[in-house]
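Re: your question about Transketolase

S., sorry for the slow reply, the queue was backed up all week. Below is exactly what I fed in.
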Amino acid sequence: MSHLSESEIQGLKNKAKNLRIDIIKMITKANSGHTGGSLSVIDLLTLLFFKEMKVNPAQPQDKERDRFVLSKGHAAPALYAVLADKGYFPKEELSHLRQAGHILQGHPDMKHIPGVDMTTGSLGQGISAACGMALCAKIDKASWRVYAVLGDGELEEGQVWEAAMYAGNYKLDNLTAFVDNNGLQIDGPITKVMSPLPIADKFKAFGWNVLSVNGHDMAELHDAIEKAKATKGKPTMIIMKTVKGKGIPEIENQVGWHGKAPSEEECERFIKVLEAE
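Result:
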């Protein structure tokens, strides 16, 4: 199993820091968007698009590319920041988030945004689509893999468990999914709204290989993805312990920042905090 070098880890951490700044800027400009959950998944998305996945911005519809599905579609600013930095569309588009006449909607749209493999937003549907993609690759005997990211609050949707049963039944070992386990959803702590715990035991019961990691540790995430690739006969669920609003101490673990946009003054302050890291 390959491991990330110290220089690779530092490069990815620096990339994620800059993408956090892009997220803050675009949500502030739009005065709308999901700040907390975008910041909690950006480390993973940085690792996937800049290290793990076989993708090519010059050929966004390449049949042999790996597929990515952001099942927790409200974290779209994180995906947009990564896609722009990767070169799927001009970075100038980030300043037009949620504006009429531009491509970056409040949730990912596969028809208008290069690099988006599945339109998402209605929670539970993304992981179901990812399962269908993975089965398609199996039927075609293709080598590409499918990656999907779910929110922990999203696990309250019954459709998630139908998809989990489907993936286990069809032995979709080319599917690697992640739970962004930051512990908070729009109405409060997941344990008080509708607790999905214990998450690991549930997915194991549906026939998944389950791994638990620090979702902000590039080395841990990479090693878990490598183990997922080596696992045969089972899909893999990587449960990431994350911090909502990660990178900005003032808003970390604050449920009020689930769907709140920073003010201009907060934006400037948050960027200075990130730049000082």
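The longest strand covers residues 175-181. The two ends are 31 Å apart (CA to CA).

Happy to talk it through on Thursday.
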